[in-house]
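TEACHING EXERCISE
Course module: macromolecular assemblies
Task: Read the component lines below, then compare them to the predicted structure of the full complex.
Student: A.B.
Group: 4
Components provided:
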Amino acid sequence: MADWIPVVIIFMPLLAAVLVFTQTVRGVAATLATGGFLLIGLVALGSEVSGQGPWLTWQPGGWPVPLGLRWQADSFSVVMLAMVSLVAVSGGLFATGFLPTALPSAERHFWTLWLFTWAAMNSLLLAADLFNIYVGLELMALAAVGLISLSRETEALQAAMRYFLVTLFGSMLYLMGVALLYGQYGMLDQAALAAVIEHGLANVVAAVLITLGLLIKTALFPVHFWLPSAHGKAPVPVSALLSAVVVAVCFFIMYRLWSGLFFVFLADQPAMVLGVVGLASIFWGGLQALRQQSLKMIVAYSTIAQFGYVMLVFPVFAAGGATVLAWHGAVMLVLAHGLAKASLFFAAGCLHIAYDHDRIRELPGGVGRLGWVWLAFALAAASIVGLPPSGGFVGKWRLLQAAVLGEAWFWAVVMVLGALLTGAYMYRGLETAWRPAAPAEAVRTVPGIMVAVTLFCAVGAVAIGFLAVPLESFLGRTFEPLPIAGG
Amino acid sequence: MAVFDLILGLLLVVLVWKSLSVSDLFGAVISFMAFGLLMAVAWVRLEAPDIALAEAAIGSGLTGALLFSTLGRLPHSEARQPVVSRTVRNGPGYWMTTGFWWVLAILLSIAFLFSLLDLQTPGLGGLLQERLPESGVLNPVTAVLLNFRSLDTVMEIAVLLLAVVVAWSMGTVVWPVKRTLPSPLLPGFVRLLTPFFLLVSFSLLWRGSHAPGGAFPSGAVLAAAGILLLLAGKTTRICPRFMFWLRWILAVGLLVFVFAGVSLMVAGYGFLVYPEQWAGALILLIEVSAGVSIGAMLMALYIGGEPDIHSA
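Instructor-supplied answer key:
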């Protein structure tokens, strides 16, 4: 197995961050170079996974589990890494237009924090060790706090502080759960633990604590309250990164744990509880999004609702029937949501630059460059709602199919209603695009690069729908949980 | 000893309660620092001298200094503000949500306490002792931090560096300028103490290979020496060249660690896989650079924002 692949994937962005910090390299150049190296790494990783898969593992440090720790990757990790890189590079390009216009003071530290976040996400996507995941979560949370507070406005600082306290609390719960597992088995590797875990009070408490910690970080219903202000007040490229991928990475870890380590517990109540959390998030997030007055806040609330939708994968899993379909559906949903959400935030940012506000009632329709922005918004919104042939459609359709095949009728109804609600609040934003254009009102011209990136991400979200067949064959025809291995 | 432990445990709880409930923030910080010191004693009682050292140096000493430097920047106020305003507290929704969370928290805590009874395995202690001779150091904690789980440590150093970046991104601070102190006693005394601080710092670093110590406590002592010098009125002129070197010193711990890992990989051993005959030397190199960086980082965190070149 090629040893260099995970090293490049994790340490290239980290090294770039340090070099930008020491002012050896310029931020844009470092981001683009990192993107290039990661492309090479990801192509290599993808071919290794499809050749020798489904699971690859590495031992940094060379010590076998349980003494040492491991990295692991399967096809889901590869597609997640690819999406993270895509959004990180797009966000970087968007920032080259956005920062000089909107936040010139933030340019000094933006790139370092951006690259640190990227490195943290990559390490989380490859980590197999529960404590290593904790360190990665800390790195990601701290970088995100720095990014949110970049504008230094009071509201942004308050949102950043709240996010900081909440996410630290989540990390603490997670760590307590990990401590319980370590105290019983003296191991931290997911696969090694999955081989020995059994029913028992301590394990149940550990599962509850870890899941609660990750639910807080994924911002699902009862513990979602930090997200709208944090994602709404952050600078636009940051909102896009946080909503599209940072939250997705937290979900990814939760998915990993419940489809591997805690899979034995999933069967009845836990799946129902996770499903109910998803259901509540869908409706709460959706109803709140309906009430918002600014475009950016609608997009922020829709993140809660859409991750609620992804959570429905757990009850569908438990219903049996078609686990592969449910798995594919969840993966496609997360990918399509990432690109579409990034595009929606970018679009809101473009409009904000053009008119100096993004209140829906007062926005005019667009012509010229802003017409393209609205087109991107419409495409991305279509994917979020799940209109064919977009990526969002494929994801929701697969999940619905799996629910029907598993005869989980209740959850199928929830999915359909959730999609209708999504359509309702996305339409509120889209309706503006129909309005008569008033070109004279634009305060500033939007830099071309911003429009191009917005459109690129939107097209990407739709294109995933067309790529569904090759993507699903890459993901594999069988659902393979973690390899049960000691080292 | 059981009586001592009981008193220690009770004192810890009382100090936590005090630092959370006392109305003036200064008193809360004092209680918190006392809590850190007693916690260090508790770690000694639990036979974890490494953690005790870290807790005393970082948990109590440096965190206390950070909290005091924060207090110094806050607008002067007599008492802390209530967390939730009165108007919010009256609604039925507030009581329902807080009630829900309280019940959940209490249930979880009870379940957590009961599940502590299930824990029997003493972790990886046995396996660790077995493989210790191959690690290149004699202190098991250093072996875990720098060899067996070195990846975690790389990332923790990255977290510290990131904390400095986040602090700097919040704004600049006026660099402490040279001022005249009311009495020559303090600068003279600090001048006498500084060599001892350096000695302790280096000895902690060196001891790390066979006894409790290592880069984190050593860096903390280094930072304490720097903070004392600042408090005693010592300062340097701040210029672009100074900032250039400061940035590199802050980054060097992480860079050396990553480069060591990558060059080992290129040499064919694998990422962060130390060949047995060099393991001790490599670990020392990494610890020295990490110690210097950690000292600089902790001091930078104490100063707060990015030193402003234009202020001097």
